[in-house]
Design a protein that fits this description.
Blueprint: E1 2-7, E2 23-27, H1 34-40, E3 50-53, E4 56-57, E5 74-78
Parallel strand pairs: 1-5
Antiparallel strand pairs: 1-2, 3-4, 3-5
């Protein structure tokens, strides 16, 4: 199935070359967990600090649960940031 993956800050370089504005439509397994997608795109788990699924925060404990993703979902990931 296809979802939109958004990676921000220093993670944006991990998106496919066709990405625009920190986002790319990507194909993932039908029953993939969020951590499966994180691993698929080589995002270090310790760098997946803020994870939003369709704008809703998903805590570390819930990222291994399969079946959360649906076709057309938006998965956005930010690394930890310092300062400000």
């Amino acid at each position: 199935m296809n979802i939109t993956l958004k990676l921000y800050a220093n993670l944006s370089g991990l998106l496919p070359a066709r990405a625009q504005r920190n986002a790319a439509e990507v194909e993932v397994a039908d029953n993939a967990s969020l951590n499966t997608v994180i691993d698929q795109f080589k995002v270090p788990r310790e760098s997946a600090h803020l994870v939003l699924l369709n704008g809703v925060f998903v805590c570390h404990e819930d990222r291994d649960r399969p079946g959360r993703l649906q076709a057309g979902d938006v998965l956005a990931i930010w690394p930890p940031v310092a300062g400000g």
